[in-house]
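Exercise 3.2. Students should predict the tertiary structure of the chain below and write it as structure tokens, then compare their answer with the key that follows.

Predict this chain's 3D structure.
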Amino acid sequence: MLVVVSPGLTGSGGPYGFVMLAASPLFAASFLITKSLTRRDSPQVIVVWQAITVMLFSMPLALYAWTWPTPVQWALFLLSGVIGSAGHFCLTRAMSLADLSATQPVKFLELLWASVVGFAIWGDVPGPATLLGGAIIFASTSWIARREARLRRRPPHDRDPHRPAGRGIRLGGAGRDRADAAAGRGSAR
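Answer key:
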């Protein structure tokens, strides 16, 4: 994230880069809460409550500098709301079907889409720091997701957190008990 923002905050965002940094843990918490809610609530219910919550928290800021939108702006707000709600629904549905570690690498395509739309509408060209930061974020998230998936596929007895994945001899039955005893882990038998 710091690569994208740039160490001296020399990007065009200026001090608003700190707002982006502060928002990162809030988004992470939002994803974790949404994932836990998918165990008991439908994606439709979750999206409605998210919209209500965002409205309640953003309403005071909107009222502070309120000016009445034009009919065209109302139409654009409506379009934005429909597209945003559809995106939230799809994201929540994906979270209900898969682990967060599987869905998050795809979510980082937002950086790519934001760059494409920014160039198409405003002619904004992402700088090298943004491209490097995006590549680091995508690569690290993909690596973590792949590692988590590999750990989940391993049998439970082979999930020793102190031993690197894929190393050592896998023993079964009595052989494993002797290996555990030799390693000081003992056996309950």
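Discussion points: Residues 55 and 62 are 10 Å apart (CA to CA). Confidence is low (pLDDT under 50) at residues 167-177.
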